[in-house]
Q: What sequence folds into this?
């Protein structure tokens, strides 16, 4: 798989937006801009694995990818928060 520069920029943009949205929704778990990008990209991976198995479709295009990634990042942040706090939200 070969990624062009434009594809890489889109992935980083989607990861940044999704991580930022997840950080705003799940208060108190911000990781900075690089951390937010990484959480957003990891959230995109989680969502791309989880949603098709559940049969969830939200549409197509960049906006749906941001929504998928944000939902995945929120799930990831909630799991991280549960691990950090010993099971308390």
A:
């Amino acid at each position: 798989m070969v990624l062009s520069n434009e594809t890489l920029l889109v992935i980083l943009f989607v990861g940044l937006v999704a991580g930022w949205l997840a950080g705003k929704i799940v208060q108190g778990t911000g990781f900075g801009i690089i951390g937010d990008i990484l959480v957003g990209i990891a959230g995109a991976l989680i969502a791309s694995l989880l949603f098709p198995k559940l049969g969830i479709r939200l549409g197509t295009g960049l906006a749906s990818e941001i929504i998928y990634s944000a939902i995945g990042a929120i799930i990831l942040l909630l799991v991280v928060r549960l691990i950090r706090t010993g099971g308390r939200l």
